[in-house]
Amino acid sequence: MAERIVTVGGPDPTRLLSNYERNVGGTEFYVGPNATGAGDDDRNGRSEESSMATFAAAQALCTADKCDIIHFMPGHAETISAAAGMAVTKAGISIIGHGHGTLQPTVTLDTIISADLDIDAANVTFQNINFVANFVDITAAIDINATDCTFRGCRFTEASGKNALIWLQDAAAMASNRITVEACQAIAIDTSNTHFINFAGTGDGHRIVRNELIGDWGTMAVGGAGIVTYILIDGNLIANAATTVDACINLPVTTTGVVVRNLCGGGAAVVNGITATACTIAENYYQIGTSDLSGVLDPANA
User: Fold this and answer.
1) Which of 164, 186, 213 is the last residue of a domain?
2) CB within 8 A of 290, min separation 6: which ones?
3) Which one has a higher pLDDT value, 175 or 288?
4) Distance (Å, rounded) from C-alpha 246 to C-alpha 251?
């Protein structure tokens, strides 16, 4: 199968999993429609022609910690209509979407505010998936409850009049260390939204790099009250319409790490987009979204 690349979130294209990451010993499964018809969970899923219908059926055939891959075929759609309506329970698997534009695979959350995707196993990667909020004020769309979770080249979008208050939520304590969100795009403009990603726990080693985040997050786009260590926030483009002070990136004084090269704008006054007191900070810029002026260093150079 020819693998496709979706370019989002900065100057670097979304990269496909390398042979090292894929591990030649892993098994590959295919889910979704194909040239010979719709997927069928009675098939073995080992080729495009024998594709399965659902993620759940494919995951059941995966072996934990063997670097198995589940391929979502172009146009495949999954729906989450309950709390933990989709749960990743096999460690070490990757869910890779194929196709772009309207063919990009979708995972839609609907029906109830508690609808969510739970990531309950370590070393899980999602790539090139469009996550869609299709209910009002979904509490936290994706709960990351395990270490080394990666979202790469994904989209996070809202159906008209629908939203997720929080798109990505970490776990308490250190249960979700090393979250990576790379080259993703979010468009989340509902005024009830609070966070794109909420770090409420005490994880370490998170990487938020080269994302495009456009929305109205009344608390903050990236950050939280958790005691996070060794975080990297680098090269993101953040436009947050909220007038809340420091609502683009907001890290408490207990958070350590590096915050560099982020370009931010929003509804708050100038030099009020970013705070990361205990981190190494360099070349971050912020400007009022309606000012028609170039950004200035934020935090300001003393």
Assistant:
1) 164
2) none
3) 288
4) 9
Contact predicate 172/33, CB 8 Å = no
CA distances from 294 to 47, 239, 256, 274, 300 (A): 51, 14, 28, 16, 14
Do 184 and 296 have their domain in common? Answer: yes
Q: How many domains does the chain have?
A: 2
CB 128 within 8 A of CB 157: no
The per-residue pLDDT for 37 is 82
User: CA-CA distance, 155 to 211, in Å (whole number)?
Assistant: 10
Question: Does the pLDDT value for residue 267 go beyond 60?
Answer: yes
Predicted confidence (pLDDT) per residue in 286-298, tens digit:
999 988 899 999 9
What confidence category does residue 17 fall into, taking pLDDT thresholds of 50, 70 and 90?
low
Q: Is the pLDDT of residue 302 over 90?
A: no
Domain check: are 10 and 158 in the same one? Answer: yes
Q: CA-to-CA distance for 140 and 131, rounded, in angstroms?
A: 12
* Statement to judge: residues 251 and 143 lie in one domain: no
Q: What does the alpha-carbon distance between residue 16 and residue 128 come to, in Å, rounded to a whole number?
A: 10
In angstroms, rounded to a whole number, what is the distance separating the alpha carbons of residues 139 and 141? 6
Range of the domain at 57: 6-164
